[in-house]
C-alpha cells in the first residue's frame, strides 16, 4: 500500500465526546452527503453492511463478507473494519495502518479513539471526521478503501488472495 499523503483539513477541529460512545458534535456533514456515503459503501467488494458490533449508537458496520477467508487480525473486530455513525453525526471509526492513522490525526482529518490510550481498543482504530463537502466525501471514500485493503492484506504486507468467489 502506498503512503497516504493528505493536505491539512480546513477549519477548526470538530468537538467530539471524550469517552465512549465517541461521537462528533460539531462541523457535521449534510444529510445528503451522509446518504451518498452510505449508498457508496454498499458498492465495496466483499463487504456486508449491517448494524455495528463495535458501536452501540445505531452505526452501520462495514464487515468483510464470508468470501474473505484470511483477514488481517490487526484490522478488524469480528470482520468489522469500519462503522459509520448515523446522521447527524456522520463520523466514522475504522482500522488503518498506524502510519495512515498518524497522518490523518496530524493533518486534522480525525483523532485517536479516547479508549485507545487506556488500551481498551487497538490504537490504530481511529475516528475520521464527517465529510462536509463532495471533496471531503471523496477523501473519506479513499480512506475507507485503504481500511478495506488493510483488512484483506496479510500481516506480511501482501494482498490476500484467499477469496472465495
Distance between the termini: 23 Å
Rg (CA only): 15 Å
- Whole-number mean pLDDT: 91
Strand order of the largest sheet: 1-2-3-4-6-5
The CATH class designation is Alpha Beta
Question: What's the shape?
Answer: globular
Give keywords.
disordered C terminus; alpha+beta; 165 residues; 16% strand; Aspartate Aminotransferase, domain 1
Can you tell me about this structure?
The chain is an alpha+beta fold. It has a single domain (31-151), classed as Aspartate Aminotransferase, domain 1 (Alpha-Beta Complex), CATH 3.90.1150. 23% of the residues lie in helices and 16% in strands. The protein contains 3 helices and 6 strands; from the N terminus they run αββββαββα. Strands 1-2-3-4-6-5 form a 6-stranded antiparallel β-sheet, covered by helices on one side. 35% of the residues are buried.
In short:
23% of the residues lie in helices and 16% in strands. It has three helices and six strands.
Question: Topology, please?
Answer:
Elements: H1 31-41, E1 47-51, E2 60-64, E3 80-84, E4 92-95, H2 98-106, E5 110-112, E6 125-128, H3 134-151
Antiparallel strand pairs: 1-2, 2-3, 3-4, 4-6, 5-6
